[in-house]
Amino acid sequence: MAAAAAYATACPNTAVLVPRLPTTARFSALPYLPPRLSSTSFRASTIKLSESRRSSLLLTRASEETSTSIDTNELFTDLKEKWDAVENKSTVLLYGGGAIVAVWLSSILVGAINSVPLLPKLLELVGLGYTGWFVYRYLLFKSSRKELATDIEALKKKIAGTE
After folding, report:
1. Which of 42, 49, 52, 64 lies at a C-alpha separation of 20 to 30 Å from 78?
2. TM spans, by residue (predicted)?
């Protein structure tokens, strides 16, 4: 404290801030609790709480009766039957692994494109323009909606191999 006072007299244009320590310990480890309620308001809040609990129990019971549960054993047996029906298991595993690698590589590519400063905004603009064109071309008029529906049905048949 004496050093701070000596410094303040030597340099009159600078301000010295000395932190003050509390003289008494007013701190407590317990949080502040609100004052206690009277017994009548406590009973009223208990009644409201018990009514809300009853209604939530009723709602829970009603939803439990109407909901259907998934039988995991049935799900696993169904998956096992489908896996046993597959002839080329190595091909399925290869395609699955290839799909995972493709998703991983595409996430790396998107991250690299996103790091280029103007490219993400430009691609957003291109996407917005394409969306506007698609809405105008296929969704705005009834005849073009029918054309889109026939194109989708033809694509479904082509993928399914029924065409």
Report:
1. 64
2. 92-116, 122-140
Residue pLDDT, tens place only, 38-53: 555 555 555 555 555 5
Cα 136 from chain centroid (whole Å): 32
The total of other beta-carbon atoms located within 10 Å of residue 120's CB is 13
Domain membership of residue 116 as a residue range:
89-160
> In 3-state terms, what secondary structure has residue 88?
coil
DSSP character for 12?
A: T
Average pLDDT over residues 137-144: 92
Inter-residue long-range contacts of 62-70, CB under 8 Å, 24+ positions, other chains counted: none
The answer to whether residue 95 sits within a structural domain is yes
Structure tokens at 82: 């489908």
Number of domains, the chain: 1
- pLDDT tens-digit series, residues 61-116: 544 444 466 788 889 999 899 889 988 989 999 999 999 999 999 999 999 988 88
User: d(Cα 45, Cα 66) in Å, to the nearest integer?
Assistant: 32
In contact, 18 and 4? CB cutoff 8 Å:
yes
| Integer angstrom CA distances of residue 72 from 77, 85, 103, 159 | 9, 20, 29, 32
Please report whether residue 109 resides in a domain.
Answer: yes
Q: What is the DSSP letter of 29?
A: S
